[in-house]
Amino acid sequence: MAENKDTLYATDPPLGDFVFDQQVVDVFPDMIKRSVPGYMTIIHMVGQLAERYAQSGTRCYDLGCSLGASTLAMRHRIQAADVELVAIDNSSDMINRCKIVLDADSAEVPVALRCEDLEQSDIENASVVVMNFTLQFIPVARREALIRRIYQGMVPGGVLILSEKLTFDNAHHDNLMTELHHYFKKTNGYSEMEIARKRNAIENVLIPESLESHKARLANAGFTGTELWFQCFNFSSLLAFKPSE
Asked: Which residues are in the Methyltransferase domain (predicted)?
């Protein structure tokens, strides 16, 4: 499927708050690759990690699946027997396009697509749970409850792959990482105006937290051995494990 170029913030009048609607769906693959440094590396490694940690007779979840990039990465790498993939997103526009993408894929691991609020979703018998830049769109006060529900729905030895945009307590470092991220977007063809408009549109929708905040929340839920395995500027990915019995 051909990718449309993201020009959403190049046109007048400027868009309001960022929403995962049909306009975003139509340009999403181009948008995320040009906006999130290391995104394709994260997706590739999600597949490898699922291959390593998926347990036979369990489920693997992609929470906030968007167009199914992580779902596809897991689907093509999982070797364990009798595994079901569950892909969840609350945007019907995303789910509708994701279904088209998955229907065109020939891998045999079954996928259940759900259009629902992941805060209300049942997480059951999960050996791998992926949240790629999803938690940051959940109100901060409700994040701990969601992480606890994920933990409770996982089997012993399960792994949570949590990718998030970070903020930093040191103001100089935080500003530097932000500037480097904006420069990354500029070198990928976004104008200063587009960068500024996107930042205004998303600042009340995407609320980043510090690495320490994420680690503390994961530990409070019961996860152990949490490791930062990827970081590029202010974008990161963590591994958190449910202890084996």
From this structure: 62-158
